[in-house]
Structures are given as structure tokens and as C-alpha cells.
Fold:
Amino acid sequence: MRNRYDVVVVGAGPAGSTAARYAAEAGLDVLLIDKRREVGVPVCCGEFNADPAVLAEALPNAPGLDELFPVDPGLVRRGIRGAVAVSPGGREYEFDLAGYTVDRDAFDRHLADAAVREGAVLSVETKFLGREGRRVTTSRGEVEAGVVVAADGPLSPVCRSAGMERCAVLAPAITCRVEGEFGDRLRFSFGNRVAPGGYAWLFPKQGCANVGLGVQGRGTPVPVLLRAFLAGYGFAARDVQAGFVPVSGPIGETVRENVLAVGDAAGHVVASNGGGIAPAMICGRLAGLAAAKHLLHGEPLAAYEREWRSAIGRELLAAARTKRMADRILGSDFLLERAMNLLGGRGIRNVIVFGGLRGR
Structure:
């Protein structure tokens, strides 16, 4: 690890690795650091990616989708052909949803490897300790950086070092793996006995499924809720992991000083479903390109803020508004049952996948 880089990216998740890839591809010296021993581990994610056509429909102004998606077919663990939403009373609503599940650890390593192939230097077991101007302090020493990319999650120490706000609402989530064959449809289960203020999911993979839930508030701990949900199906959990998902929408400012915020650190999550992989990669690409334009051509870093908001800002804000409105209904199983009955499968798909934007 040298003592100077054009760009230091903190966090080797989808946002950080994509930013590192595009900055390195533009010819910059890039250092990508991650505090974990192994990129992609542990996994706390549903591991589902929507089909590129669905992404293009949901995020029509997002650039670079043809470059970012689809992923290497070798990473796909199950093709998904649809979904089922289960109401508190047990009624099932089917809707179309094309995509695929992945092994998230392998997926993240694939993205980090792509950055390394472009010339980025990857340093694992390297903690971000602080930043003052261009000087970045890590557990492996100090480095100087022209641009620092904060891709270090919803509690981002990098954003804090620049005085940026952090995501206002973090939803507790927990995932696990269960063995078996589960077809090719995602399954979402709603109700306050299952996942208060949120939902539980079962996402099929090859020979197993990713099962988990996300909730709102400080009620029953998520491990207790997960055990109850699994017991209802007779499932045995493996590889249980818990974390937080930012669901309040993007933070107000994602550029300050020489720091760019991306991914969960910036609130780049579709709040109506908790999905963050696609927004993270879209904004990671824009961050890497913005760093290159700034350092190579003198363009202001503030252009990144304008570009990502133009690309997906409207959709992320709409999803956050939909989530806030849905919170009033999710607290009552009676209201939720009625709402799902009124919406039907297509309406539920609109809320979950598109944040309620379609038809407006």
C-alpha cells in the first residue's frame, strides 16, 4: 500500500467496488479498502437482483445499465419468474417479477475483482480510522487521497468525518439460509405477527433459499421473529446474520469537501422494498466517473450530486414517500389486509418494485 492515491474508496460492497472500477478504468490510482477479512462476508442481504428490463422500467433515467447488468451467468443461483405476496390473513397475491438470486459473497468478490482488473489496489482487513482533508488514516497507516469515496454503510464513519448527515431511519433486518428446493418465485409475507412494520421473505436459490425479515421500531427482537417465522414452516436456519437497512431515503448532501457518499452511506436504497444493490452500483459508477472528471479535467465534485439525483433521485424519493405512507397501514393488520385486497397483485407489485411511481 503506497502513501498516495488519486482516490481512496472505503468499503468493498457493490457501491465501493463499482466506484473503484470506474475510477481505475479512467486511469486513476485507486485504493479500495475494506475492514473485513474477506470481501462479501458476512452476508446480510436478500441476494435478489431484478432483471435488467425491470431495472430499466423502474429507473428509466439511470445511465450505464447495459454496462452494469446483467451479471456473469456463473453468479446466478436461480432464475426468478414471479413473486407472491402473502397478507396477514394468509391470502396470496401473485405478480410478475423477473430476476435472479445470487450468492452475495461471490457477487461482491466478482465486483471487487473487476476493480482490481482495472488497476485498483484492494486492501482487506484495513479499517478507516479518520480523515483530515486529503489525509486518510487507516489501520495500515496514512495515505493521501485526492478524492475519498464513502461506501462504508449506513453508519458511515467517512461521512461523519466530513460532517455529513447519516440516514435518519435504519430498519433492523436479519437473514439466514434454509435447505431445500423452493421453485422460482419470491415470497413476501406481511403482518405484525410475522414482521411488524415490514415483511418477511423467502428467495429461492439452488438447493436452498435466503430467508429473512426486516421490521420497523423497537418491538420484538428480529432473531425472535425469525425463529417464529422459520418454525411455522419447519425450517432450520443456517448462516444467520443481522444488520440495518436505511429506509428514510437519500441523505441531503452526498458531496462535501473531497468526499463522495455512495450506497447505504448515502441512503441509495429503494425504501419501499429495502433493495440497494442496483442503486449502489448505478451511483458507484457515477461516483467513480465524477472523481475522474474532477481529478483529470478539473470538473467540480458537486457534479456527482446532480448526476445521481437526475439519474435515480426521483425514484428513490418516491419510494421513501411510499414507505412513509405505508408505515401507517403496516401497523394495522386489518388495514393492511384491506389495502392488499384493494391493490391486488399488480398494485402490490407497483408499490414494492416501483415505489408507487407507476400510474402517477
Summary: The domain at 4-354 is CATH 3.50.50.60 (FAD/NAD(P)-binding domain). The chain has a mean pLDDT of 94. The longest strand covers residues 141-150.
